[in-house]
């Protein structure tokens, strides 16, 4: 538990959320201890009145530091960098804004934020052929796909009626979600998202290829691990989770493959991408319980979830 000048850090997040992983990675990379609160996207907990008081957008992640509430992964990362970059906590962005490294990091971040990761993720899950290679338990994949077919929208519509203070924001989000539902079922939009990721990866590959001589062991933008590396690591991990690595970088972008093998040795990477047993068990129990409520008691659900997770972990 980290106690700083403002209070105790607490992250509201969901482990499978791409943007949650950006915040989690940053917290771990800085060596910050934090409490966490799981917000189940598939139960619609992001639209509960309690959570909407913290984040009226109904999105994860949200960081709470004492009385301060910081929504959105980019705002969280900026807050952590501004407030936890002294000698005890490493900087992830150079102090000199005129430096080559700083300019490159900002450029990569801007390009990263333009990527259509939700379309890439759910477009892949909705493609029956591509879905076979996804590196997630099939029952969880099924839950994620089903969630985009109605439950999310129903939870949002309930919140619009039940939480007047957030109604205006949530009504705008409803329009966005309707458009998103159409996009993830459109093969052309999915290919557009893939092309955007390919362009970003090509830029990263070229940057890594330029690191020769005394720069051969550099990270993406310099000798120190930076915010650009966090984004690249989270992206590469998502690509592997979706089973798209052979298409997007294995074999065709060798420097990225080498980079990922090296990055996987970092404790922060491992803590971010290999969730604690209790969280993984909870995710699986949540999915199993939804599918077989009449056959399994609570204890059995947890046991099955753990067994599935342990088997996959050993494999």
Strand order of the largest sheet: 2-1-3-4
- Tell me, what's the shape? globular
Count of helices? 16
CATH architecture of the largest domain: Up-down Bundle
Radius of gyration: 20 Å
Low-pLDDT sequence parts: 1-5, 291-315
| SS strand fraction | 5-15%
Number of domains: 3
Q: Mean pLDDT, nearest integer? A: 86
CATH class of the largest domain: Mainly Alpha
Task: Report the strand count.
Answer: 4
Terminal CA distance reads: 33 Å
Properties at a glance:
4-stranded mixed beta sheet, 4 strands, Glutathione S-transferase Yfyf (Class Pi), Chain A, domain 2, mainly alpha, 3 domains, single chain
List the helices and strands and how they pair.
Elements: E1 9-13, H1 18-29, E2 35-38, H2 49-54, E3 62-65, E4 68-71, H3 73-83, H4 100-113, H5 117-125, H6 128-131, H7 138-147, H8 151-162, H9 167-183, H10 187-209, H11 227-241, H12 245-248, H13 254-263, H14 267-273, H15 277-291, H16 298-314
Parallel strand pairs: 1-2
Antiparallel strand pairs: 1-3, 3-4
Task: Describe the structure in your own words.
The protein is mainly alpha-helical. The chain folds into three domains: 1-92, Glutaredoxin; 112-148 and 184-273, Up-down Bundle (Glutathione S-transferase Yfyf (Class Pi), Chain A, domain 2), CATH 1.20.1050.10; 276-315. It is built from 16 helices and four strands. The protein has helices at 18-29, 49-54, 73-83, 100-113, 117-125, 128-131, 138-147, 151-162, 167-183, 187-209, 227-241, 245-248, 254-263, 267-273, 277-291, 298-314; strands spanning 9-13, 35-38, 62-65, 68-71. A four-stranded mixed beta sheet has the order 2-1-3-4, covered by helices on one side. Helix 1 (18-29) runs antiparallel to helix 14 (267-273) and helix 5 packs across helix 10. The longest helix is centred in the middle third of the chain and has 23 residues, at 187-209. The protein is globular and about 60 Å long. 32% of the residues are buried. Mean pLDDT is 86; it is low at 1-5 and 291-315.
């Amino acid at each position: 538990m980290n106690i700083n000048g403002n209070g105790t850090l607490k992250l509201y997040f969901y482990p499978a959320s791409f943007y949650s992983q950006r915040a989690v990675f940053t917290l771990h990379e800085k060596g910050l201890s934090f409490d966490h609160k799981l917000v189940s996207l598939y139960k619609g907990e992001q639209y509960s009145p309690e959570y909407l008081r913290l984040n009226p957008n109904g999105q994860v992640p949200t960081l709470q530091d004492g009385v301060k509430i910081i929504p959105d992964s980019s705002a969280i990362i900026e807050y952590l960098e501004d407030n936890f970059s002294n000698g005890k906590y490493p900087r992830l962005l150079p102090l000199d804004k005129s430096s080559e490294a700083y300019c490159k990091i900002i450029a990569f971040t801007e390009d990263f934020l333009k990527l259509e990761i939700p379309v890439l993720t759910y477009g892949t899950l909705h493609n029956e052929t591509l879905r076979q290679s996804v590196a997630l338990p099939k029952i969880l994949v099924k839950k994620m796909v089903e969630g985009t077919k109605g439950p999310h929208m129903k939870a949002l519509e309930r919140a619009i009626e039940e939480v007047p203070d957030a109604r205006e924001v949530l009504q705008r989000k409803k329009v966005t979600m309707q458009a998103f539902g159409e996009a993830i079922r459109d093969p052309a939009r999915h290919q557009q998202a893939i092309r955007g990721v390919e362009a970003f990866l090509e830029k990263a590959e070229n940057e890594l290829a330029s690191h020769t001589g005394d720069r051969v062991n550099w990270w993406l933008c310099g000798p120190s691990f930076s915010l650009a590396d966090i984004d690249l690591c989270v992206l590469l991990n998502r690509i592997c989770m979706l089973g798209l690595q052979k298409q997007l970088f294995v074999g065709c972008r060798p420097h990225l493959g080498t980079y990922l093998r090296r990055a996987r040795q970092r404790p922060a990477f491992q803590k971010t991408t290999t969730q604690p047993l209790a969280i993984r068990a909870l995710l699986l129990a949540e999915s199993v319980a939804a599918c077989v409520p009449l056959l399994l008691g609570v204890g059995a659900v947890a046991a099955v979830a753990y067994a599935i997770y342990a088997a996959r972990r050993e494999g």
